[in-house]
Amino acid sequence: MRFGFLTVLALFFLCSINAQQGFQKEVDEIVERNDSLWNSSEKTIVFTGSSSIRLWKDLQERFPEQHILNTGFGGSQASDLLYHLQNLVLRYQPKKVFIYEGDNDIFAKKKPKKVIQTTQAIIQRIKKENKNTNIILISAKPSIARWGLRGKYRRLNRKLEKLTLSDSNLYYANVWDIMLDGRKVKKDLFVDDGLHMNAKGYGLWYEKIKIFMK
């Protein structure tokens, strides 16, 4: 992956300007909770990203044979994850990292190209710690609330998938297609806000994610 260290460094400091205060309290609480759960003698899998991860409450129960930590923080964008990567991911020395970011970025009118650049910086920092870490990029999901932005989400997903072709330890989990009924989003997968998923929605995600648990 050709992405220079100076570029990563510049992105990190640019991201830190906006991210360093907004999520600090929540990140501190996440760290406190996960530090009490983490067993450093076991191979760890970290799920991180925005509220679609944060609200996946039964991750450990769905994958009982794995040691899983959920470090999702609601409302986050890729730049926020980049800034807090040390505390939310790297400190747990994971063998696998599942990342869900980009949903809020697009809603905040960031261009897909910008999201990909930040995602590249996240990947490079993880691989600097351990080049053998498997990283699974979860596609942006369709939703009722943001269906008007579907074109931009599709462009982002194509770029995310293309990005994973550059490294044998990068994978793409496509949750977009399984949440569609033809050309429409399945409306029975969401809670009342039309954005966050209910148990049925997470059931579909489980079917897609379990492939990467082997």
How are the secondary structure elements laid out?
Blueprint: H1 5-22, H2 24-37, E1 44-49, H3 51-54, H4 59-62, E2 67-70, H5 78-83, H6 85-88, E3 96-100, H7 103-107, H8 112-129, E4 134-138, H9 150-164, E5 170-173, E6 180-181, E7 184-185, H10 199-209
Parallel strand pairs: 1-2, 1-3, 3-4, 4-5
Antiparallel strand pairs: 6-7
Pfam family, one: Lipase_GDSL_2
Keywords: Signal
Signal peptide: 1-21
Tell me what you see in this structure:
The protein is of the alpha/beta class. The chain has a single domain, classed as 3-Layer(aba) Sandwich (Rossmann fold), CATH 3.40.50. It has ten helices and seven strands. Helix 9 links the parallel strand 4 and strand 5. The model has no long low-confidence stretch (mean pLDDT 93).
Low-confidence stretches: none
Strand order of the largest sheet: 2-1-3-4-5
Secondary-structure-based class equals: alpha/beta
- The CATH class, by name, is Alpha Beta
In the CATH hierarchy, what is the superfamily? SGNH hydrolase
Q: Can you tag this structure with a few keywords?
A:
Rossmann fold, 7 strands, single chain, alpha/beta, 10 helices, 214 residues, two-stranded antiparallel sheet
